[in-house]
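Worked example 2:
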Amino acid sequence: MEKEIHIVSFDYPFPADYGGVVDVFSKIKALHGLGIKIHLHCITNRKLKKEDEIHNYIHKLYIYTKKSNSSTFFSLLPVSVSSRFNKELIRNLTKKEIPILFEGLQTTGIINNLNLPKSKLFLRLHNNEKNYYKGISKSENNILKKLIYRLESIKYKRYQKKILPKFQTVFTLSKTEDKEVKSKFGNSIYTSVFHGNNEVKTFSSKGSYCLYHGDLRISDNIQAVLFLISIFKELPNYKLIIASGRGKEFMESKIKHHSNIKFQFINSNEELNQLLEKAHINTLVSFQKSGTKLKLFNALYNSRFCIINNNITDDENLLKLCTVCKTKEEFKENIVKLFQSEYQETGKRIQTLTEFSDEINAKKIVDVIFN
């Protein structure tokens, strides 16, 4: 019997150019590879091309317009939930009664209108949103934005308690979130991020620089970059490249007096992979816990050493592949130490990362949904 599924995505997942949609797009590819027939529903304001790669992996595509945030600000629901509520989506989901996988809490505002059994409803929890928005609020310098994010966190605290018990299974991104959901509702399974990498690349033992890459529209990433700049201005003999498709003028204003720090504007994953291949150390920092960051998988599959703080992942097997630092001084000491070391960890990575493949994650989801 053919296995079919509705997937409701918070955005159109192509191009897969930021963490959340990379997880969605890579998951769709992996599920398609297992023979799953996918009806994809996307709530988005992106401008779409008539033909792109995603059509190779789905049976049917439905597009819905996301409402403006201002029109939903005074809703009791979180803004990111109420802006994605759509009556046409409800009608389309109920036309064909097959399992539904909701991508992120943002897409779940319609649950009470579906009138479907719990056994049909599944959630990919991309973040514990109350903690995520609380963390963004702490990182944000703009007072108005800080208040908006804090209010969103408060709304999600109430919302999560009501909505999470309504799913047969919640697929969590982190061990911490899995433990929390399981202790309160008993319906979670840890399923690490879908990352799109197929094999661990082999490199020479030496790279040329340290690398940080991230979306510089996000306040946590900006805070991370400023932290790294404070480190490398005290390490003038060591080169740092900051790579992003955003924030060029802002970054150049921050590094103009430090010749060892360079901003590299990137337009594609191909350009990022070229930087990863030549990096000796990947410096990955976050000031909020929200599961394993996608950028860690990109670095582990496509580059050499990784120096991280413990907010980048809470998976003990991934932590063993990295040098974990808590303080600025520890970062400085280990940057110097690793630059004097030869990279010889490919075999260890291949052995560990096998269990984090997209195919294994997809099989886990299929076994649960279609059991």
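The longest helix spans residues 143-163. The two ends are 13 Å apart (CA to CA).
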